[in-house]
Amino acid sequence: MTVIDTIAEAEAKALNDKLAGLDLAGRLSLVAGLGGRVVFTTSLGIEDQVISAEIGIHRLPIDIATLETGRLFAETLSLIDETEAQYDIHIQRFTPEKADIDAYAAKYGLNGFYESVEARHACCGVRKLKPLARALEGATIWITGLRRGQSANRAETPFAEYDAERHLVKVNPLADWDIEAIKAFVSDNGVPVNPLHARGYPSIGCEPCTRAIKPGEPERAGRWWWEQDETRECGLHVAEEASVVAAQ
Known catalytic residues? Predict the structure, then answer.
């Protein structure tokens, strides 16, 4: 870690402490006022809809982006338009490059992600990580909808942390919210949500890689369900996987 990274990490820790004492609107307003380009990346899940609602309601100067992977549910795509209309916001779509998709298909097959973890990580790299890099270009702060209650792998999620790989501060303003608080906010404020949530999909990604969960399963059990690793992620929020995928 460089001296600059060390300083940035200390500043992120100080920001983490400040955010802990604020409500969601206060957290987002504080971050929006820090200067530089602030980007919120939404997957249109219920948590992200809460953040989009607050950005729209309070007219905060935060760019909103989504990764339109080419394999999303139709319900997710429709929700993008509905959210933009309800809050008078613009959600910028970032799509994978055709050349990358063609190269992936030539090597693994279009649905090769079912065959190995390597192939699945490579697909996430093409459809999510590379578009994310474009979405975050020039950003100083990256806002996400990560929550500690989503999975064991996310149980220690801070409010703010320094992302040394992307050289920016990552802010997770819903880190301490549980799913009941999320649902209550949605209900009280008329926030539009993906109808798939009501059909047993608490966590929604690409259609081929997402299933409804069974009673008693963790929220993210329906993501890449054919893999055995209970800490499975796509690489967006796990530095080790992000570096491996980016190098492919």
Answer: 234
